[in-house]
Amino acid sequence: MLNNIGLPGLLLIAVVVLVLFGRGKISSLMGEVGKGITAFKKGVSDGSKDDDNDPALADGAAARDVTPETTDKDKA
Hints:
Layout: H1 7-21, H2 23-52, H3 72-75
């Protein structure tokens, strides 16, 4: 159903959204979306820097398995 939306359909949807919400509301919403994307990118880059500085993983050391062993009591 949505595969048949062309350029005229998208323009009509854009005009309806603009009329309903107004230019000011849409521009403020897009500003908030931009801030969210920027914060996400910053968080991802900070996370990768933290992984690089982790002494447990330094010098190519592999992460150790900390999964608890199951006992017969745990299975019941």
